[in-house]
Write a structure and sequence with these properties.
The longest helix is centred in the middle third of the chain and has 13 residues. This protein has three helices and no strands. The protein has a domain of 26 residues. It is rod-shaped. The chain is an all-alpha fold.
């Protein structure tokens, strides 16, 4: 990196600090690559936000009166149906 490009980016040349250290043994390049592949895939995808709940297909819908009998439903039954 030249002095001009270092001044533009605002960063000095700092060596990358490793996040993983091998404490014992002498792994081959293939073993280290396999470890990096496994650790890289652990992150997965971010959790999906919960979907909005809908009232479609609720079991209480099967218990409702026909629309023509709607005037017979008491206030208590209406409140019960709204809650479920």
């Amino acid at each position: 990196m030249t002095e001009q490009t270092a001044g533009v980016s605002g960063e000095a040349d700092h060596p990358h600090e490793p996040h993983i250290q091998i404490l014992r043994g002498n792994p081959t390049d293939a073993e280290v690559a396999a470890l990096m592949a496994v650790l890289g895939s652990v992150g997965g995808t971010p959790a999906q936000p919960p979907s909005e709940s809908t009232r479609w297909g609720l079991p209480v819908d099967r218990l409702r009166y026909a629309i023509s009998n709607y005037q017979r439903i008491t206030l208590q039954e209406r409140v019960h149906m709204r809650r479920h």
